[in-house]
Amino acid sequence: MLKEQINDALIVSMKAKDEKLRVATLRLINAAIKDRDIAARGEDRCEGATEEEILGILTKMVKQREESAAAFEKGCRPELAEQERAEIDVIREFLPRQLSADEIQLAVSEVIKEYDAAGLKDMGKCMGALKERYHGSMDFGKAGKLMKESLS
Description:
single chain; mainly alpha; Hypothetical Protein Yqey, Chain: A, domain1; 7 helices
């Protein structure tokens, strides 16, 4: 399970006295997962955060850091941008391999063909299928843009 993998990685990193950035990033991930566990208990779910929710948390953390790195680059703070990118590398260790632009295009085309989608009115069900099949391994912002272009 992903939660245990992250926890084990934190323990190994602390014992190995790895760089502070890695340990701090793993602690941030654990804190975000624990927050989700607490919220799940409030929803009367005993099991805590699901694998899908953890993947969502990790994906969101990567996206936030990418945006921060871009802002730091724009603000002439390359050292802070580099730190954000280093955190992204740690977080991505726990995410499935991300699809390339060509693979995203192929997946979009396959779903459009499968659902016999003809226009933008079919975009919702096609995107739903993509999210179900490629959760955590696809940039849905790019996929949505490609889907919209294909269905227009």
